[in-house]
Write a structure and sequence with these properties.
single chain, mainly alpha
Length: about 100
């Protein structure tokens, strides 16, 4: 139950960022969202490329979405610390502030 609580916090943190930052958009209806794999996009393909580059420059790898879907996919598996999700959402907020 302790791990589940942390996983809930991670998912909530990321989904709140996606929902509150207009430059990002979730791809799954809120009632169907996964706590383990979070998918989202940006409406501007050029901004997606730029955001992916910034993620990589900050050591956040593996966030690129599936080749047939695009966008981003963030895995929040048990080993992913809450601090890493916080770092990603901080990066998202900074990016949105500058670009959105």
């Amino acid at each position: 139950s302790a791990v589940e609580k942390i996983n809930d916090q991670k998912a909530s943190l990321l989904y709140n960022a996606i929902d509150s930052l207009p430059v990002f958009r979730g791809t799954v209806a809120p009632e169907d969202r996964s706590k383990m794999n979070v998918c989202f996009v940006m409406d501007n393909a050029e901004l997606e490329k730029e955001f992916l580059t910034i993620c990589q420059q900050n050591g956040m790898v593996g966030v690129k979405g599936h080749r047939s879907v695009g966008g981003f996919r963030v895995s929040l598996y048990n080993a992913m610390p809450l601090s890493s999700v916080q770092a990603l959402t901080d990066l998202m907020k900074d990016f949105a502030k500058r670009k959105g």
